[in-house]
Specification:
binds zinc ion, Monooxygenase, 5 strands, alpha+beta
């Protein structure tokens, strides 16, 4: 079986395993538990527009999960079928940011490409954050300044309550020599943000809105 699960879908499935573990620990009624089990399987299967018989069988077993060990084994097994983020080199990164002076490279060797929906990294020297994501099938990069906030807030990409900061990009205005700044609050830690993501909608909106 070829990989067919995206990182955000994997995260969603992981969340459903937590719902099931919690359900088994707190509910005694068999009817209620059965409803919970079928609802979880339904939610997981509905993430995918099309599934082969084999893929369907693999994912349907989510409803059998009762406890942590079982969930961990299930998640480790389906991780083999997670589609990695497209492979990327320093050369291709340079091409994506032609205007960025003093471009800092991410530590590519430290990244598990099955665990990201976007590649995000920081340059503390210039207070910049860089992001690369697939937008309409094409790798798209944006960068901007990043200013951490002193308290937690809601991230515009993963929608979770996290340590955030203001990400701002500068794009050319309609009149010559003018610039417009656009931005929003997003997770400080891009790795954590990728772990939180369980849908791509807000990520795509964000990148689409802020690219030059
Ligand atoms: Zn986030």
């Amino acid at each position: 079986m070829e990989p067919f699960i995206r990182n955000d879908q994997y995260n969603f499935i992981k969340y459903q395993t937590q719902v099931l573990i919690h359900g088994h620990a707190s509910v005694n009624d068999t009817g209620v538990l059965n409803a919970l089990k079928s609802l979880s399987a339904e939610k997981v299967l509905s993430l995918f527009a099309e599934l082969s018989e084999e893929q369907n069988q693999l994912l349907s077993t989510v409803s059998d999960i009762k406890e942590r060990d079982h969930a961990d084994a299930f998640l480790a097994h389906i991780k083999d079928y997670v589609i990695p983020f497209p492979s990327i080199t320093e050369q291709s990164i340079k091409k994506m940011f032609p205007k960025a002076k003093k471009l800092k490279m991410p530590a590519l060797e430290d990244i598990d490409f099955r665990e990201i929906s976007y590649l995000g990294w920081d340059d503390k020297g210039t207070n910049r954050k860089y992001m690369i994501s697939l937008l309409d099938g094409k790798l798209t990069g944006i960068y901007g300044t990043f200013k951490p906030l002193s308290k937690k807030g809601i991230c515009a990409i993963c929608n979770k309550f996290e340590e955030t900061g203001m990400f701002l990009t500068e794009t050319k205005g309609t009149q010559l020599g003018t610039y417009t700044k656009k931005g929003n609050y997003i997770c400080h830690d891009s790795r954590k943000c990728n772990e939180n993501l369980n849908s791509l909608e807000q990520l795509h909106d964000f990148i689409g809105r802020l690219r030059g």
